[in-house]
Structures are given as C-alpha cells and as structure tokens.
Amino acid sequence: MNRLLTATALAAMLAAPAYSETFRWASTTDPQTMDPHAVSSTPVLGFLNNVYEGLVRRGRDMTIEASLATAWEPLPEGAGWRFTLREGVTFHDGAAFTAEDVRFSYERASSEASDVRSWFAPVSDVVVVDDFTVDILTTAPQPIFPDSIANWMIMDSGWAAANDATGVARDVENFATLNANGTAAFRLVSRQPDLETVLEPFDGWWGEVEHNITQAIFTPIQNDATAVAALLSGEIDMINPVPVQDAARIEAGDGVSVLRGIETRVIMLGFAHDHETLQNGAPNPFSDVRVRRAVAQAVNVDAILQTIMRGSAEPASQLVPPSSRGFSTGLDTRPPLDPDAARALLAEAGYPDGFDFTLSCTNDRYINDEAVCQAVVGMLAQVGMTATLEAGPVSNYWPELRAGNFDMYLLGWSPGTFDAEHPLRFLVHTAGDALGTWNFGGYSNPRIDALIPLIQSEIDDSARQAMLDETAATIQEDMVYVPLYVEPLLWGVRDGVSLTQRPDNFFILRWVTVD
Amino acid sequence: MVSYIFRRILQSVLVLLVVGLVAFAMFRFVGDPVDTMLGQERTVQDIERLRESLGLNDPFFVQYWNFLGRALQGDLGISYRQGRPVAEIIAERLPATLELAAVSGTFALLMGIGLGVFTAIRRHGFSANAIMALSLIGVSLPTFLIGILLIYLFAVELRWLPSFGRGETVMVGGWSTGFLTQSGLIALILPSITLGLYQMTLIMRLVRSEMLEVMRQDYIRFARARGLSQRAIHFRHALKNTLVPVITVTGLQLGSIIAFAIITETVFQWPGVGLLFINAIQFVDIPVMAAYLMLISVMFVGINLIVDLLYVAIDPRLRS
C-alpha cells in the first residue's frame, strides 16, 4: 500500500468537515476485552451490548423484552424455561443463528474460565429441541431466570470454532479478545485497545433501526478534565461520566448539556458485626444494633447529597434502588435524622462518651467517595463517635475487607439482575464460598438464609414479594447496613444528540440520533 | 580499558536485577489483581483458582525469579487487564512515547539554547528579563496544570488544536507514526510543549549561566579586542564552549523525558507506555508494571553506561 497516499487521504479526511452521522463518545474505562464471557463488568458488558445480543434484552426502562428469543415460558413443574428463537437472524459474518449457537454459548459462558458463570449456577443443561427452540433446564424453579441472563451474549459456534475461540479468553489471548461477531445492530470494524474502537451499523440486523449514525467511534479518556475539554471543544459528542463538580459549569456553557439520572448502585455503610474487638483493641460496639441505629440517625444524608453530590443523587432506604424489581415500597423510609436520639441510643448501649474507631473507605471507586466519608466522619463526631478515616485505592480495599481489617466501611452495590434478591445473596446471606461473598461484616441470620432459596424459586409474584418485604424489614430492623444514597448518572452530551440513559449505565448506540 | 567496560556492564546488570527485585517486593502493596479481574459475582473458589493460576500465592522473590526466567526467553507474560502478550502491547505503545519524547526533546533543546543565548547576550534587556521571569513559572507549575491550561486555551477556547489523542497514525513497518499525517503533527504540539517546557527552562538557564561565564573569559575579550563581529564572538566562539555541559545534561535528561511522559500522557490521553503504566497501576496489572519498570531501568542504565563509556573515550586519564 502506498503510505504517502494513505497519509494524504487521511489528511484530506480530517480537513473535510466531520459527518454529523459519525458519533464519537468517550468514557474513562476502555472495555478490557471484546470477549463477551471473559469479564463481567459494566464497561465490557455495556459496550458489547451494541455488538452481541442475548436471548432477551432490557428496554429503555430496564424491562425485559424479546431479542434473539421471541417468546419464553416456564417448563412444567419448574424444570426450567423454554425459549422460542427468532428466525432469520444472521451474525455479522453472515452465518445463520440457530439453537446450536445458544447451546454453544451456554457451554462457553458457564465454563471455568468464564467470569459470567454465576448466571448459570442453577442451570443443569441446555437442550436443543429443534433449530429454533431451546430448553434451559434448572435444578430448581427459577422465576426470574430471563432477567438474570439479559447480558448473556450469544456467540456463533461456527465462528468460534473456525477462529479457535471456543474457550473464554481470560488468562490467554484468543481471536475473540480483539474481534467480535455478534448479531446486534452494530458490528466491530476496528479495535485498538485503550486507543480507539470503531463500530458501524450492521445492515443485516433483524430489528427496526432507530438510530441515524453511520459510524460510532469510542475513545477511552481517563482524565476527567481532558474528557470535559474534549466535549466542550466539540471533538467528542458524549462523555460518561461528567464529574459532579463540573456538571453545573458544563450546563451553563453553550452547545452541551448534562443528562442526569439515577444509577442502580446503592452506597451504604457496612459494619463489623462479628468482630470481638475494634482495630484499636477496644470492644466492638458495632455488634450492638443500637449503635448501628445511632450511626443511621447521625448521618445527614440530605446534607451529603446537597453539598458533595450537588443535588445529583437520591437517598436510599434499602439495598436496592426503588426502580428495581422486588423493591419493598412499604418500607421506603430512612431512619429520621436525629443526633439527640443517636446520642441516647449510644448511652443506652453503654457508650455515653462515645468511642474511637476506623472508617475504611475507597478514594477511587465511587463518585466522590472519600469526600462522602469525610462528611460521615464529621457527622458521627457530633454524636461522640470519633472515626479515623482510612481512605485508599480500591485495588487494596477488597483484600483488606476480606481480611477483616475494618470497623466500619463504605460499600456500593449494583444489583446485576436488577432485582432485590441480588444483594441478599451476596451482602446478607451468611458468608460462605458462593453465597455471602461480599458479607464482610459477618452478619448472619438463619431466617434470611432460609428465605433466600425460597425467594429464588418462588413462582408466585405476591408470595415472592411478601418474602422480600420480610427480609427488607429485618435488614432495616437489624440495621445490617446503613443505606445512604443511590449514585447518580451524569453524562455530558453535545446539543443535537439525543440518546437514552439506562439506569445500569449501559450506553446503547441504537437509541442515538444525531442532528 | 576492557576490564573497565566489563566492570561497568556487570554493575549495570546488577542495578537492573536490584530494581526488579524492589519492584516485585512493592507490587503486593499496589493491591490484589484478582479483585479487578473478577466480577462481583465471583465465588471464593474463583478467587483461589485465579490466584493459584497466576502464581500470586508464591512469595515475591519466587514470582520475580519466574518473571526473570520467562523474560530471558523473550516472554514478558500476559497482561491481566487486556489478556494479551505484554511484549505486543508495549511494542504497540512505545512509538507514541518515543515520538513525543523526540519532539519535546528537540523543542527543549532548540528553544532552550536559543533563549539561553538571547537572555545571556541581552542580560539587561526587558524581554530577556521577562523571559527569565516566565521561565520561573515553567519550572514551578506542575506539568499537569500546564497541560490542562494549554488544553483549555488552545482546544476549548480557540479550537486550534486537539485536546487529546495522537490524531491519525500511519503504520510504517511495525511502527505507528504520527509524523506523516497533518492531524498527527498537530496533535504533537500541545503534549510536546507540556512535556518539554521544564527541560527547556532547565537548558535555557544552563546555557545562560554558562554563556555569561564564558563571556567573561579572556579569549572573548581578546576576540573583541581583535575587532571580530559580535555574531562571530557569540555564536562561533562563546556558544561552542557553552555546549559541552549542555550536551551532557541533555543526554541524561532524555531518559527522564521518557520516564516523566507519564503525566503528560495522562493529561492528553496520549497512547504511550506512560499511560499504559498508569492503567496498569490502577488495575494491578503486574506483568505490565514489571515490564515497564524494567524497560525504563534498562533505558536509564543504558544511557548512563553509554555516557560513562564516552567519558573514557574522551578523557585519556581514565584509560590508564
């Protein structure tokens, strides 16, 4: 190839005015891989949702809707689910989509190297009934199984075999690390990790096209200030996230606006329930529910939201946000802010003069996490609880929490299934190998442990909700965690671009239109 | 002579080995890669299996030994974050850093010498004093701030230059270059100034003080007495004698331009090895961190070795 010619052509391309249909967006994190089963994280799954599709997908309001499956129904006696597949769907390389691809994708996604295998924990087998019917058999009834596989992306078995990508590319590189072949509205045109990833619309897509873009270019920009500058200078059409402290300034400027929403992540305070002593050797006050309640009544969440989050977030009362399935609407109240009551509770618990302890906190994981913790320290000091703040990067945080080196800690939880059962499984169930893996504080309640499998397998919606309400009430009563607020979503968008912000922070290109 | 060179090389290898050992001893304080590699629904077994397969349960010197063994065979391992061979990733990213370093080094050298001579000749002039005052800002403002200021002025307000990235690049052999496209050249301007500003002020101040020193020497007075033109005195006689220490310093600064590119690269989203290293730290991507640190230390040790050997070549007293 004539390099000079290429260079001239590129220069000419740049000199010409940018086509409005080319959409450029930036985010702080590059999707690590193009393999849909290798990494279960929002940047990867969110990005790949534009390239790959699952049997079901989530709509603009997070409801489950048909995608590669057109219909699904539970099998008799809770044996699993039958999915009727969409006919006439092709992958980006032209291969036809059939039930065999579903079976292959199940085997791939549930293999040991897969990071999404927990979605298939209740699955015993996937049976191909005919080319367009698949039975997914489960060991127990799974009423919300379709909800839990909305991000399970289907890969072409023939493509994977031909390119030696049948295994999940996690500790090794394979063809699927840099290449993709899905069925979704966009196909991967070029991929330069950490640099630029280009998507173009897939002409053979089965769905109705709502967007008007001809090319979409993703660039990771790590530095917030640089991303904001790129948006303001018009080089980028959309950035995610906008730093909360810059949102007002961006809104005041011309040509750009901030799209505000509420994410699904609840920020909460956790406690060392089962520790004998605090880090400083004193007896552990947090095993007393009165002390935990005192914390809840001493923290002024509204003030935190107004000052640190600049009015962008919403207070939380439970471990999931109000929009999620199974939220207990009757229990949507936080303990009232009442420092006097908090002091009384402390005195009643035997700490009239308060106590010293350590608050562990991240400084690079959640929005303004360290500032929130500093505010919490100040508020607790007013009722006599003197906290030493230990804030550090998240890469060191989870190992410390796993090792039990904390008294009280900050935690954010985003329910992967968008259902109230999700945090119960990980945050509240007695700590074990597969369940309660994030229950660092060691809270243990046999009644809740018994309820969780029942909730998971209850077909009847009202019976299920009743059990969820019971656990939510118990968690509030025992003050297992003190939920603070639901994190905000702040996207910076150039005027003339319309898009949809979904609460799971997935950016879906097929809902983008550019003027 | 041969034994001197041999000794210096041996010392260099020893320094490299110690740097590697210290680096591996530090990695455990950076954090646990397993948490960043696994999703939130991982089980305890998943964590253990991954730790075992990555060899994270071994003591750090065993990990270091394994790394060395593989590195000697040319295998730098697989990046935890990208799941791709580290050598491949570094080869992709190195051209960006080297081109940025070359341009900002040239900028620093040319501007530094030019302004240094100017401020020395016109030492009482207004503009020379203004440049000296401004150079103080260049030395004292952190790179990060200078970068952001330049971006807001030239990218956001004036919209002359891009705020991030490398522009279009062209592959020449295995080397991605930004020198051959218009956007690639334009994209180099702001990051090069940001990265080179500190070095430029350093060279400028060095040239100025050397020049002032030289101008007081007898041979310059004789040159004036002989009636040589100002231009000949300044540039043929004075500047030449000024440049000896400048060249030494510049050589040594070249290493630090590459090493300190980290901040500039982060501010401008410049896809070089510095940005790669920052990503690696956040993700606890040990193979990438190890490879980067070894690369930088090989470079520093190499430059020092060459400088030492050059001294031997230049100074006959060292040869005996």
Structure overview:
Chain A: Pfam families: SBP_bac_5. Chain A: Residues 64-432 form the Solute-binding protein family domain. Chain A: It comes from Roseicyclus mahoneyensis. The complex is a heterodimer of chains A (515) and B (320). Chain A has helices at 3-15, 42-48, 99-109, 145-148, 157-162, 175-178, 224-232, 244-252, 289-298, 301-307, 339-348, 369-381, 394-402, 421-428, 446-457, 461-478; strands spanning 22-27, 56-58, 64-66, 69-74, 80-85, 123-130, 133-138, 186-192, 196-201, 215-220, 238-240, 256-271, 314-315, 355-362, 385-392, 408-413, 481-494, 497-498, 513-514. In chain A, strands 1, 8, 9, 10, 11, 12, 13, 14, 15, 16 and 17 form an eleven-stranded mixed sheet that branches. In chain A, strands 4-5-7-6 form a four-stranded antiparallel sheet, covered by helices on one side. Chain A has two domains: 7-239 and 495-514, D-Maltodextrin-Binding Protein, domain 2 (3-Layer(aba) Sandwich); 263-488, Dipeptide-binding Protein, Domain 3 (Dipeptide-binding Protein, domain 3, Roll). In chain A, helix 9 packs antiparallel against helix 11, helix 14 runs antiparallel to helix 15 (446-457) and helix 15 packs antiparallel against helix 16. Chain A contains 16 helices and 19 strands. Chain A is α+β, with helices and mostly antiparallel strands and 515 residues long. Chain B is mainly alpha-helical and 320 residues long. Chain B has a single domain, classed as MetI-like (MetI-like fold, Orthogonal Bundle). Chain B has helices at 2-30, 33-37, 44-54, 60-72, 86-121, 126-140, 143-157, 182-215, 218-225, 230-259, 261-267, 273-283, 286-314, and strands spanning 170-172, 175-177. In chain B, strands 1-2 form a two-stranded antiparallel ribbon. In chain B, strand 1 and strand 2 (175-177) form a beta hairpin. In chain B, helix 5 runs antiparallel to helix 6 and helix 5 packs across helix 8. The termini of chain B are close together. The mean pLDDT of chain B is 88. The interface between A and B is large, with 62 and 58 residues.
